[in-house]
Amino acid sequence: MSCIRQCPGQMDIRRGVVSLATGAGAIYLLYKAIKAGIKCQPPFCSASPICIARECPRPGERAWPQEVPIPQVSGVGGPEPVWGGCLGLAIERERHGRDSGELRRLLNSLECKQDAYTKSMILHSITRCVYLLESEASACTNDDVTLVGSMLDDTDNSVKIQALNTLKAFSGIRKFRLKIQEHAIKVLELISTIWDSELHIAGLRLLNNFPLPDFVHPQLRRVMPALMEILQSDYILAQVQAIRLLSNLAQKNDLLYDILNCHVHSNFLNLFQSTQPGSLLFEVLVFAERLSEGRSSPHYRAVKWHYNEQSLHEALFGDDSRLADRLLALVIHPEEDVQIQACKVIVSLQCPQDVGIRPSCPPSHSCFNNGE
């Protein structure tokens, strides 16, 4: 009987021991799985465009599915897989003064007939190579840039976006800037006719990366309403790029009126609200300062300009504008660069540019009351 009485207790002990052992085993297996996952290295990658593109996806670019490998095109024949060293090996070769030929192979692949997805991935890979393989990128020719620029005529928006990114990469090399400027009108046309936020970002980043030549100004006047619409959209990255371009254009005497007379929404001053991201607020304030300086310049004041009631000029500098209230609120913004820039705008509104030859700042040029 004592044995029978002790059995339930012993069984409970055994169950506890078994549970403890099982739990410890599960933890150990989990530890081994995690350790194996950390130590696991990706398979040796190929020199194909999809391999290079996977290594380091760039911010602002579209995510591409990684399940579908793309063969690299070799020669003038059909697509045949060509396996070789990955981009890391190409970088290592360049470090030792050797040309890996990676960028040239990709450019040759682009010349062959490809589907839209393949072209996008090849262009993405070329972009990365231009940034990382400096000597190979510098050895490219204007014909290579022209080839990339021809991709802007592709019917697929993804190809256009990747081509814009590649042109921006090439624009960092001085000898290609004149050739890339030839595509500025086409880029402006794409930005103004296709409503795609990622295309806007890619195109505007390119245009902001080099000075726009004077022959582009007529096209800029035509696309000004589109640029203003992008600025008033809800996509922060596109807004920041658009306003940077507009800030640069505001310093051109022949474009200042076109910018100021551009139609804006009734809630345009919402861009100056303290709830906006600091990066956007700062750029908006720089834009306002440059507009204020431009309209105070002797060149601009020599002409009697007329603006429509819903123009940017009326929203910022009109009699009914509430810009002063927004600026005063931004003086106590948490970010210091926003505070400083808000003060700069206030100063530019109070005093015209030629204040040095005037005894005082006339109140007629101020958006602020004497008490303020």
UniProtKB/TrEMBL annotation:
Name this protein carries in UniProt: Armadillo repeat-containing domain-containing protein
SUPFAM superfamilies: ARM repeat
Gene3D superfamilies to which the protein is assigned, alphabetical: Leucine-rich Repeat Variant
Stretches assigned to the Armadillo repeat-containing domain: 101-312
Pfam families in the cross-refs: Arm_2
InterPro entries given in the database record: ARM-like (IPR011989), ARM-rpt_dom (IPR006911), ARM-type_fold (IPR016024), Armc12 (IPR042834)
Top-level taxon of the source organism: Eukaryota
Species assigned in the record: Rangifer tarandus platyrhynchus
